[in-house]
Amino acid sequence: MGMLTDQFPGSEIALGIQLKHIATRALANRSTRGYAASDPAWADHLQDALDTAKFRRLKDLYSTHTSRDNIGFGPGADRIKEAFDQVQATVAARGGDARTEDTLLLKARITIRFGTLNHCLFDEANPAGAACLENAIVPASHTGPLDNRCRPDRCHNSMIGPEHLPIYDSHRRTQLKLLDTAGLLVVRRALINRELERTEAVLAQTRLEEQP
Ligand code: SF4
Q1: Does the beta carbon of 202 sit less than 6 angstroms from any atom of ligand 1?
Q2: What is the pLDDT of residue 31?
Q3: Using N-to-C axis directions, what is the helix angle for 165-179 and 186-210, rounded to 10°?
Q4: What pLDDT score was predicted for residue 29?
Q5: How far apart, in whole angstroms, are the C-alpha atoms of residue 20 and residue 205?
Q6: Is the Cβ atom of 131 under 6 angstroms away from ligand 1?
Q7: pLDDT under 50 in the chain at which residues?
Q8: 74 lines ligand 1 (CB under 6 A)
């Protein structure tokens, strides 16, 4: 907590108060700074916390799937559903419990990045097919996908969750409204049409699965 608060302006004073160093304010600086000082173990703790939070969300998805609710749409969703089905079948075959489920889910090594516009199933062990990396100049030290070039409309790693649908629906309506603007420049109209096509392509993935 000390190291996190240190990232914000004025935080040393707040941290001192929180840690009860305020009573010895004259001497507080040294001890408060000690708490805020960067620690090599911090990155590991943070990564552990992120992994734990991610696994919790993965378990929520698994539980939604086993309750026969739809966890999402698109090729990424298909892959994750397949992995969940395998876990579920193995648990049933072994007569396993929740602990077995957790172990199998961990072993399944499902790589998922939860996002605002989609979830990404990019697997660093098998990066082929990531639309964001196509024709991209990837910085030397970078690993993983390039989020700012994400293409949920056509990437086989993309999963659209039910929570993403209102965003795409609203975006589609906005683009349609913009197209009605009088006197649009040809270039601007082309850009809006391209955006609309991409949005429609995402929504089409969801409609495909709703068909009987
Ligand atoms: S295009 Fe998007 S979904 Fe596909 S790998 Fe890149 S970030 Fe992930």
Answers
A1: no
A2: 57
A3: 140
A4: 53
A5: 55
A6: yes
A7: 23, 26-27
A8: no
User: DSSP class of residue 8?
Assistant: S
Question: Using CA positions, which residue lies closest to atom 5 of ligand 1?
Answer: 130
Determine which helix (DSSP H) or strand (DSSP E) holds 86, and give its type and residue range: helix 75-94
CA distance 193 to 98: 48
Inter-residue contact 147 to 117 (CB < 8 Å): no
Ligand 1: which residue has its CA nearest to atom 8?
A: 120
Q: Which of 115, 96, 117 has its CA nearest to residue 107?
A: 96
Its pTM stands at: 0.77
**What would you measure as the largest C-alpha separation in the chain, in angstroms?**
72
Q: Whose CA is nearest to atom 6 of ligand 1?
A: 132
Separation between Cα atoms, residue 4 and residue 36, nearest integer Å? 8
- Quote the tokens at residue 87: 């876990």
Encode pLDDT of 55-114 as tens digits: 999 999 999 999 999 999 999 999 999 999 999 999 999 998 889 999 999 999 899 999
CA dist list (Å): 178 to 57, 174, 189, 199, 202 = 36, 6, 9, 14, 19
* Closest atom of ligand 1 to CA, residue 118: 3
Q: Measured from the CA of 76, which atom of ligand 1 is nearest?
A: 3
pLDDT given at position 23? 47
Asked if residues 157 and 183 have their Cβ atoms less than 8 Å apart, the reply is no
Q: Which candidate, 40, 91, 44, places its Cα nearest to that of 66?
A: 91
